[in-house]
Amino acid sequence: MKKFILAGAFSVLAMSSAYAQVPVTDAANIAVNEQIKSLSAQIQQDTSVVKDNTTKTLQAITGDRTQDANQFASLATGNGFSMGQAPDFNSILSGNSAVFGGIGGEFQNTAAKLINGLNLVKMVTDGAGVNLSGANQAYSQGINALTTMTALTDAMNTATKDRQNSFQQATQEIGKATDLKGALEQNTQMVLQGNQTANEAVGSLNNQVMLLNQQYKSALATSSQHLRTFAPLAESVIRDGEASGGSSVRDQLRAFEDQNQ
Asked: I need a surface site. Which of 62, 127, 189, 242 has the fewest CB within 10 A?
């Protein structure tokens, strides 16, 4: 009897061991696992895209864009003459000759041709016993200012043409920047060049003011000289016919007429 009981127990254990080794398949769990796997792969792919876009954005707004900005660096001057090279006004009016500063030689030659074409003399000689030093100084300063301003105007006209061509060429490059940083640098350079162009215009207006001032100064000196020349003679001169210098009034007037012929 005991043998049968032991045999039955062994058979039950053998059956339990056999059933424990049989794999169990759960379709629902497998489907969920596959979905989790797919979502994980999608998240990993999206993370890579975000990382790449972040890197590209960082590169687009940082770094050196000198090459993009330098192509607009000389628009205002047109690679030529600028008002910063103009001579100082005080040196023009205080010197005995025209002052050209940084004005090129070709523009100086144009000014010299103009002055020679007008047949202007350098200075009026004092004579007829009348002091003409005020008129002489105004006349000399007028010639110096005219000569210098002629060369300066010629140089500015040439620079304006170069500047116009430079801006026209720059408009063809706008929009070709490879990223945001390059576009910002180009925009900043264009603003700076626009401000410098405005400064060039202000410098030209200053020249005009100086010329007008010289015109008024020359007119004032001329008027003053006329008043002195045609001022009433002193009673002693009328009575004696002699001036303090020893020459008669008739001789002084004759010399003055000869001086102005």
From this structure: 62
pLDDT-derived band at 126 (thresholds 50, 70, 90) equals very low
What ranges do the domains of the chain cover? Answer: 85-119+129-230, 233-261
For every residue of 141-197, DSSP letters joined together read HHHHHHHHHHHHHHHHHHHHHHHHHHHHHHHTTTT--SSHHHHHHHHHHHHHHHHHH
The whole-chain average pLDDT of the chain stands at 75
Phi, psi of 29 (to 5 degrees): -65, -40
pLDDT of res. 134 = 66
Lookup: tokens for 126 = 């004092």
Asked if the model's pLDDT at residue 72 lies above 60, the reply is: yes
Closest to 138 in 3D by CA, of 123, 153, 117, 159: 123
pTM: predicted TM-score of the whole model, two decimal places: 0.57
d(CA 1, CA 6): 9
DSSP conformation class of 125: P
What pLDDT score does 129 carry? 47
91 Cα distance to chain centroid: 25
